[in-house]
Design a protein that fits this description.
two-stranded antiparallel sheet, 69 residues, single chain, 5 helices
Length: 69
C-alpha cells in the first residue's frame, strides 16, 4: 500500500522516531511502512492519520490490484 507518511512527517518536521513514539510502534515499523514493505493494521493506519489530523485516505493510497481477464 502506498502512503504519504514521509510527506506528512516533513510537513510537521517530525522524525520517524518521534512518529513511532507517538503512535506506539518502533522506528523500524515506520520505516517499513514508508518503504511499502509492511502494511499497517487498520488500527495503526487510523492512529497515524489521526496524529496528522488527516483522513486515512489522505495518508494511505490504496492501489487496487488489476486482474487479467
Amino acid at each position: 500500500m502506498k502512503n504519504r507518511i514521509k510527506v506528512y512527517r516533513a510537513m510537521h518536521d517530525l522524525t520517524q522516531e518521534a512518529l513511532a513514539n507517538a503512535v506506539g510502534v518502533t522506528r523500524q515499523t515506520i520505516l517499513a511502512i514508508e518503504k511499502g514493505k509492511y502494511d499497517p493494521s487498520l488500527e495503526l493506519a487510523f492512529k497515524i492519520a489521526r496524529y496528522f489530523g488527516a483522513s486515512i485516505e489522505e495518508v494511505f493510497l490504496y492501489d487496487e490490484p488489476t486482474e487479467d481477464l
